[in-house]
């Protein structure tokens, strides 16, 4: 095939998947205070983590909830809230899920990365938050299930 007829191939985008938990107690949502992570330390953030290989997003959320805050969530109690295509680190898919029922905790199971846990009213969020998380919560409040951030 001559160079004139060859097509240039574009590298496929590789994306990291993140799951975020909106653990709700009435009109309040649970946040953790980031410490010693090297990224946005001092900011409040939802319990969250990366999707691992061979793991569904619901399984990842259930696992992260247990690992980070010691709560046991039944898969049928996980409700999808929002998908954000975030430009950070070359592109991430951040999935946000609502949970109103759980067993155990919450307790801080990662004190080396989390300085405190705190409940905040959804209409009075903490002043210092990671920007994309605040944007996602605004979309969720407006019942928008998809957004693009930072592109």
Characterization of this structure:
Helices cover 16% and strands 33% of the residues. It is built from 2 helices and 8 strands. Strands 1, 2, 3, 4, 5, 6, 7 and 8 form an 8-stranded mixed sheet that branches. Strand 1 (16-25) and strand 2 (28-34) form a beta hairpin. It is globular and about 55 Å long. The model has no long low-confidence stretch (mean pLDDT 93).
What descriptors fit this protein?
151 residues; 8-stranded mixed sheet; alpha+beta
| Helix share bin | 10-25%
Number of strands: 8
Quaternary class: single chain
DSSP helix count?
2
N-end to C-end Cα span: 36 Å
Radius of gyration: 18 Å
Q: Which percent range describes the beta-strand content?
A: 25-35%
Order of helices and strands: EEEEHEEEHE
Shape: globular
Largest sheet: 8 strands, mixed
The overall pLDDT, averaged over residues, is: 93
Low-pLDDT residue intervals, each spanning 5 or more residues: none
Derived from helix and strand composition plus strand pairing, the structural class reads: alpha+beta
Q: What's a concise summary of this model?
A:
It contains 2 helices and 8 strands. With 151 residues, it is an alpha+beta fold.
Write the layout of secondary structure elements.
Blueprint: E1 16-25, E2 28-34, E3 44-45, E4 48-50, H1 57-69, E5 79-86, E6 92-99, E7 114-121, H2 131-141, E8 146-149
Parallel strand pairs: 1-6, 5-8
Antiparallel strand pairs: 1-2, 1-4, 2-3, 2-7, 5-6
């Amino acid at each position: 095939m001559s160079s004139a007829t060859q097509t240039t191939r574009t590298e496929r985008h590789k994306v990291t998947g993140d799951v975020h938990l909106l653990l709700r107690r009435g009109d309040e949502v649970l946040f953790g205070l980031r410490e010693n992570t090297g990224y946005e330390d001092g900011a409040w953030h939802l319990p969250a983590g990366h999707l691992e290989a061979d793991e569904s997003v619901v399984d990842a959320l259930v696992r992260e909830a247990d690992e980070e805050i010691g709560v046991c969530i039944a898969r049928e109690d996980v409700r999808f809230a929002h998908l954000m295509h975030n430009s950070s680190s070359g592109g991430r898919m951040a999935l946000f899920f609502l949970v109103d029922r759980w067993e155990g905790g919450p307790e801080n199971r990662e004190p080396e990365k989390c300085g405190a846990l705190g409940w905040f009213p959804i209409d009075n969020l903490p002043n210092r938050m990671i920007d994309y998380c605040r944007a996602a919560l605004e979309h969720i409040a407006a019942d928008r299930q998809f957004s693009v951030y930072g592109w």
